Amino acid sequence: MLIPQLQKVLTTPITQKSRQNQSRLTVIFWYSLSLTFAVGYIITGLRQAFSSKYIVSDDAREYISWMYRYFNPDLFPGDLIADYFQSVTPIGYGILYKIIAVLNIDPIFFSKIFPIVLGIITTSYCFAVCMQILPVPMAGFIACLLLNQSLCLHDDLFSGTPRDFIYPLFLAFLYYSIRFSLLGILVVLALQCLIYPLIGFVDLLILFLRLFRWQNRQITISQNRKDFILFVAAIMIAGILILPYAIQSSQFGPTITAAVARTMPEYWHGGRVSYFSHNIISYWFDGRDSGFFALIAPPQLLFGLLLPILLKFQSHFILSKQVKDEVKLLLQVVIAGLIMFFTAHALAFKLHWPSRYTHHTFKMVLALATAISITLILDATFRWSRQNGRQILILGTIIIIGAGLVLYPSSLKVFPKTPYIEGQVPTLYNFLQKQPQNIVIASTSEEADNIPIFAQKTILVGKEYGLPIHTKYYAQFRQRMLDLINAQYTEDINQIKDFIQKYHVTFWLITKNTWLQQYQPEAKQAKAKLEKSLPVLATFINSCAVFETDNLVLLKTECIKVVTKN
Prior knowledge:
By secondary structure, this protein is mostly helical. The chain has helices at residues 2-11, 20-49, 60-64, 80-88, 91-102, 107-133, 137-151, 166-179, 182-195, 197-209, 225-249, 258-261, 280-284, 307-312, 328-346, 359-388, 391-406, 426-433, 451-455, 471-488, 493-503, 522-532, 541-544, 557-565; strands at residues 55-57, 212-215, 218-221, 420-422, 440-443, 458-459, 507-510, 545-548, 553-556.
């Protein structure tokens, strides 16, 4: 009796003929278990986020720093970096944080706590989508478990950036597409276009593919008028919502071309982006920004590739007959993602990084496909064991699969892998917060990256903000960087004075650095100068330092000008 009971609990589909109360309890159990693991993973990750006041997600520094303007419009006056990232921040994401500011909620705090909400929504829609394709609650649980593990292996939920919204919104889009809820589809599409427009293009392609049918080995056009009405409405909504963002983000455009990018160290290994690679397989397959199969983890997701094979052998995998026709939506997602992937490559870099169109969508498809595949295999094993009286085999299979799925995170050195960084010099941030709002800090130190978000003050340049995408922005940024390197390591005091005057520098933060090698030949020239003599700027440390730690010195430039006059 044990095997039939296990099969009933684990792989029996929920149908209209099932007993309503028992079916409802089964769904509630597996859905609750899905939420338990999701929230548990997220809370484990948030422990690090709240371990210190000066902790923030790495990429959040780009998007959240300028948002303190919502609290004080006078912050970051004439700030190139703040103006640029405000222009490339999706309109909907900016509106969300404007509401947060009205509610007087700190943006950093909100970026840390909101993953719980996003995780719950993601898990709910993932479970619902899986149930629409294969109405077996355990499959929904496996899909949610794998997807949440995958999200916690990369900064796809904790980043504090617009991409955190990809998963809940895209899974919602899939759910309403299966249910053919016109209102649901259009509302979710609108939200995607406002918060993460890139995935909106994938949505449109999916809706376009749904205008066609594969019947009798030939392509036919849908006879459902609503399909065309939906597609036209979606095109109009996407156009209306994406166009303002395209205009807004073009302030610092156009984007750098692929031909120019190939000549820039920033786009190769060790650079800010590391887009290109001499390894052609890595470039197209698993390159972080260029590969179509980038960052796919955990490895269990690869079981999803078995699904097409399993569906071909329905006589061996009886439960596959319960897989609904909606499973074709997964193939449509893959096709749409690949079309946008190759389009983004062809138009580099007008549609951002190509991998953004497959990295996220493939993970969701593979999580769902893997869950369905495992469920079909487990059901087939149940049936074979019952026929051959091999209870030990099925029990062993359940234990191995269950342990492999649930205990996988414990085999990793770090889980979840969160992108949080901790500001190392709180006293520096406190000192700078007390300074006038119009100050400018020049530094080649990586610690400068933390000044805008923790001190709300303007920096001249910073490693985190050196994105070589839009020409008008990066040309200014790079020139600033080169001028800073030359001035910091010069032996000519007049060059320092000219630099201070040109960029209105108020403070100069000096430290050791490791990220200048992409700025050549100035970086090599600076190193050569250091080997011969001490830069003139170093002679002002004793007389002009206003703040100092073991490896940081903050100089006041007004002091430098006064000393040189005397």
